[in-house]
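Lab notes, practical 5.
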Amino acid sequence: MLTRDRLRRYLDKHALLPPLIPQQTAADTGLIVVIPVCDEPDIGSVLESLLACDRPDCGVEVLLVINHAADAPQTVVEQNRQSFAAATRWAASRSTENFTVHASFTGALPQKKAGVGLARKLGMDEAIRRFVAADNPAGIIACLDADCTVSANYLSALNQHFAANTVDACCIAFEHDLDACDSAAQRLAIARYELHLRLYVNGLRAAGYPHAFHTIGSSMAVTAPAYAAHGGMNQRQAGEDFYFLGKFMLTGKMSTLNKATVYPSPRLSGRTPFGTGARTREWMLQPQRAASYPPQCYHALRQLMERMDTFHQATPAQLRSTLQRLHPAARDYLLSQNIIEAVAEIQRNSRSLPAFRKRWLRWLNPFRVMQMVRRTAAALPPVAVEAVAAAMAGKPDASADAEQWLAAYRRADRIIAADTKTVQY
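Output from the prediction step:
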């Protein structure tokens, strides 16, 4: 009862719209998949993929949040109307007793806020509302995109993962569908981009950073209580997934689910200012720009992690001495973030080494780490994605192409991060 009241309080404070779905929530609903839809010509594929999944030990709902900005072209508005009609027909003919699809047409959303973050928030808030109605405040909310498909065990693996682990959120294994590419240039660009994403996470792992997780909006899930406790989804038009999952990393209750797989589309979407679609388009037009962060970009992070315990009682002079060993770009960034003053404050508020570690890692959060890596990379000559993959694998002279390296790093990710959760200090 207490948790359900907390969910209600969250809705009272943070919900932006009244209920989107008029239909009653089934009492056994335990998993709700939220899918933003904007200008999608084919929503049947993702629904059929979910319908074909093995059934978990609970009822499943799929919430389609069909949305567009107030200034969207008429073609987008019309496509959304068609998507809503198609989804309504699909739901009426294909929903089952324990697998129900609901479509909501939000209409025009404010231009300054409209985007994937707001759409996910509206759907996830509705999921909270429906879990309250079903008297199941411990339900799971999964995020997917309309152009994805999933492995047959997607639903059951999600349910089992949260039942077996004391975690609040998870990122789910993903693999872009390279065979769906329209050209060899697109296939190369998307293979390079996914490889770049994996190299970044592997670089964090190699440095000993505990928050080494993929942050892909179409392959993440969270429990309803944790969603509400952390203030819900943000309304960013891009990068909403990074900032959302970052909150759970800092609590030590973030995890990886590798027993199921999401297959995102490799299409060249232009709906967000950065991310998969934008980067793939850029690398298709200018393949010479397909670079990743060189291995030395992670050296500063590794040194910070290795010296973390010494910072507990380090003087400002000793800390400055450590910073002098870092790449100048990394050092300058950390100084711009007032690292000397931050460590002193953390020391004052930490009675023990474990307490210091926890506060230190909250300061050295995923955003600061990403900025430090990027600043270092900007100060170095660009290095091709394939060359970075070879160097990080300890095979700098290897001549494998992007797809071969991608296959290798996909396999490695399955082994290294198999159903893992955040290291707690």
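Observations recorded by the TA: The first strand starts at residue 29 and ends at 37. The chain is about 50% helix and 15% strand.
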